[in-house]
Amino acid sequence: MSVALEIRNLHVSVENKPILKGVNLTVRQGEVHALMGPNGSGKSTLAYTLMGHPEYEVTAGQIIFDGHDLLEMEADERSKLGMFLAFQYPVAIPGVTLANFIRQSINAHRKAKNEHDSGMPIPEFRRFLKEKMDMLDMDHNFAGRYLNDGFSGGEKKRAEILQMAALEPRIAVLDETDSGLDIDALRIVSEGVNRLYGPDLGVLVITHYQRILNYIKPQHVHIMLNGQIAESGGPDMALHLEEHGYDWLREKQGESAE
Ligand code: ADP
Ligand code: MG
What we know:
The protein has helices at residues 43-51, 75-80, 98-113, 122-135, 153-167, 183-196, 236-244, 247-257; strands at 4-14, 17-28, 32-36, 56-65, 68-69, 83-85, 93-97, 146-147, 171-175, 202-206, 220-225, 228-233. By secondary structure, it is an alpha/beta fold. It has a six-stranded mixed β-sheet with strand order 6-9-10-3-11-12, with helices on both faces. Strands 2-1-4-5 form a four-stranded antiparallel β-sheet. A hairpin with a 2-residue loop joins β1 (4-14) and β2. The site of adenosine-5'-diphosphate has 12 residues, from α1.
């Protein structure tokens, strides 16, 4: 059965200030959604809330993943159920290679499914990781680097996409929280998503870059404005945005508020 991430009437406050004001969004396996919107509209707040960041207080609404209440789950439980959140492990871990880190994550998932599992044998893991790296057109040496230790923005993205490829999630949420992301990093994320995408993977890409839509072809585009999804549409929404920016939406929202 197809799995879904369902965000229902989500209200979130930061330091008692309401930021998200009733967000509704469902992402199913096999779908690619882009969430866009101007700076300050609440996109990263949604991403941090999905990650369970303690500063982001859910004051109303629900987040359901595969029928489970996501807000009641620890980050590792979310991951084991097949939800992948980029930036879940943003810290550098000196002494732990990317390959080791990925192997530990895979083994934790296996153990969650079967407590007697003794982990993926190392030769099998090596083959598995190489296949994933080949699919993503990555240099095999990359997995031998210490995780996020001195990684450039582009390399962090590459590491993230490789983790995603290896964990084979059912729903992945990728947030371009870092406004300093260059076009190269954007391209890496986009190509990775395009290569990994299939009927078993649902993706929510959160970005304020309209140009990401030149690389990823989502079936659904949502625009966040003032903590709500102001508009949802198909791929042609991207063209509209490119031409008209966000002002038309502000005007529309202003009109309906009067
Ligand atoms: P976006 O990602 O769409 O640019 P954000 O979710 O980062 O928007 O921000 C939405 C609003 O929430 C902004 O007004 C921002 O100032 C506020 N905000 C977000 N995170 C915090 C925080 N940790 N502390 C205080 N205010 C925050
Ligand atoms: Mg942001």
